[in-house]
Amino acid sequence: MDKLTVQEQKQTIREQVKQARKRVTVANRLSWSNAANIHIIDWLREQTYTSILVYSALPLELNLTGTITWCWRNAINVYMPKTNPSEHTFTIYEVGSLDELQSGAMGIQEPYLQQRLANNVIPDVIIVPGVAFDRQGGRLGYGAGYYDRWIAANGQKHKPVIIGAAFEQQLVSHIPMEEHDFPMDMLVTEYKLYHLQSEKVY
């Protein structure tokens, strides 16, 4: 059998993990999301960061509402992406309430208030979703490259801490990485917050 290309390997992993994620019950998704939010918040309490970019979770993703509301209560500016599907890019907006979101591309809740556009902001922390992750910093997204493009264009101006967010079921032994794929600094699941470079667990 011919050796699979990197793209074929990625697609195989993507489909396998998506199927496993579908089998997670609603109750477990809620419980595991709450546990992961506690790990993030405990870590944030020890930092001096003032801004964070987070995603609005799709139904099967780890939900970050707990972290978002905690940041608002603790004077940490919250930013969220608004996608441009035709170009596979996004812009970020400051968000001060869940009421500032509306259904956008692929049914994702996105910011819409134009006056909250934050073109020149590079948040201190970026929490990214994904289909699968490994413990070496590898991330496998949905294949469109939104975060890869944004971080490539903006991440050199001010190096943010990049945290992948997923359930333990979404962790695999190895994700093949390409030159344009950016590595995670940390990874949060319902079990732990992994500091990937030193393998320290918070």
UniProtKB/TrEMBL annotation:
<dbReference type="InterPro" id="IPR024185">
    <property type="entry name" value="FTHF_cligase-like_sf"/>
</dbReference>
<dbReference type="InterPro" id="IPR037171">
    <property type="entry name" value="NagB/RpiA_transferase-like"/>
</dbReference>
<keyword id="KW-0479">Metal-binding</keyword>
<keyword id="KW-0067">ATP-binding</keyword>
<keyword id="KW-0460">Magnesium</keyword>
<comment type="similarity">
    <text>Belongs to the 5-formyltetrahydrofolate cyclo-ligase family.</text>
</comment>
<keyword id="KW-0547">Nucleotide-binding</keyword>
<keyword id="KW-0436">Ligase</keyword>
<protein>
    <recommendedName>
        <fullName>5-formyltetrahydrofolate cyclo-ligase</fullName>
        <ecNumber>6.3.3.2</ecNumber>
    </recommendedName>
</protein>
<dbReference type="Pfam" id="PF01812">
    <property type="entry name" value="5-FTHF_cyc-lig"/>
</dbReference>
<dbReference type="InterPro" id="IPR002698">
    <property type="entry name" value="FTHF_cligase"/>
</dbReference>
<dbReference type="GO" id="GO:0030272">
    <property type="term" value="F:5-formyltetrahydrofolate cyclo-ligase activity"/>
</dbReference>
